[in-house]
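Good day; I would like, with your permission, to put a structural problem before you. The record follows directly beneath this note:
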Amino acid sequence: MAGKDWLYGFLSRHRNISLRDPEKTSIAQAKGFNRTAVSKFYDLLNSIYEKHNLSSYDIYDIDKTGVLTVSNKQSQ
């Protein structure tokens, strides 16, 4: 089992990795993560793969940090 010495050595060799506190999961996210919702997601994903003739190499994962989903300007 890796100990503290190993962890500190690993982190010193890989300075781009940082330890962060986990984010809390909202109740809405927890409720939405069920067999029906996950199955529906993968069915939709599969239909998109087929419709656009995509492969797994065409899909990218991004971190939501810096991606705005809500406008911070007030509407007039």
